[in-house]
Amino acid sequence: MKASDNPELKNLIARVEHGRLMKETATATMAALGLIGFGIMMVPVLGSHAAPQQVAVVAPVTTPIEHKSAYAGISLQGHAAIVYDLTTGKVIFEKNSQSQLPLASLTKLLTMYAAVNTLDANSPVVISDAALAEEGDSGFTAGETFAFKDLARLALVASSNDAAEAIAEAAATKNATSGKQLLAGAAAAAGLTQTYALNGTGLDETTQVSGGYGSAQDVAVLAGALLKKAPSIARSTIEQEITIRDTNGFSHTLPNTNQDIVHVPNPLLSKTGFTDLAGGNLVVVFDAGIGHPIAVVVLGSTRDGRFSDIETLVGRTLDHFADTSAP
């Protein structure tokens, strides 16, 4: 007899087949649930591997949110720049601030710092023929004599090469050393690690060699050091013009090479620089609060671009402090 002809046998076979199908379904379901459960358990494990990758990307970004928002999207013509807090020694903003670049007449800040450590305020400084041979004409005559404090102010305000050279000569003679050694000692005393000068004016030595080199950060530190060491000389650089008299009473009046200093709030110091090799350089120090000097430096810009770069940076820096002081 065939199984299909026996109703009871047909029912038995059907029940067995149904049981087998139910068992396979249950097994498949348990397997699927097991995979899901395993996946859920693996999430923390996978997360523990992913976290270090996220930290590795985020950890180096230590700049405060206020800094990022204040300087976001900033565009500068200068190759290097820095906003440096002279009170805390912290860099608020920077662009290639460690690059060693030609300083042009910013070198005069180093010359004055060296001379302040050597000459007395009223030490006589004579305008020599060698000083008059420097590029530019400040209206001096050979043999004219000035008090150091007066000639130093004019050297910075008007960026006078004649005055800077005469001061470098006087300080080197007083120290019984060469001009280069005098400037090297001053750079070391100020803690400048990327600055050296071949002359006291910053004028290019050749078409390929500048008279002075340094970084934006070094310039910021130097400006702060001069402001602290000789505040009356440094602060004279914010005036629109400078008038000094030689020992015979003859006066010399020259304009400030940074006429835009009037647009900087609470200015404390200003110095321009420009040569073919350096391009346009500029440093200003201003008070961002009560006794809170901030140095802003631009190197390797253009003759006009240095002023707009500084204006942009000062504006963004004011925004930065407004943001950080907000409740």
Short description, anyone?
The chain is built from 10 helices and 12 strands. It has helices at residues 7-58, 65-71, 107-116, 129-132, 148-157, 161-175, 179-189, 216-229, 231-235, 305-325, and strands spanning 80-85, 90-95, 101-102, 124-126, 145-147, 196-197, 212-214, 241-245, 251-255, 267-275, 279-287, 293-301. It has a 5-stranded antiparallel β-sheet with strand order 2-1-12-11-10, sandwiched between helices. A 3-stranded antiparallel β-sheet has the order 3-7-6. A two-stranded antiparallel sheet has the order 4-5.
Shape: globular
The CATH H-level homologous superfamily of the largest domain: DD-peptidase/beta-lactamase superfamily
At CATH level 2, the architecture of the largest domain is 3-Layer(aba) Sandwich
CATH class of the largest domain: Alpha Beta
* Discrete helix count: 10
**Could you give a short account of the major beta sheet?**
5 strands, antiparallel
Strand and helix order = HHEEEHEHEHHHEEHHEEEEEH
Helix and strand content put the structural class at alpha+beta
Mean pLDDT: 84
What strand line-up does the widest sheet have?
A: 2-1-12-11-10
Number of strands: 12
Number of domains: 2
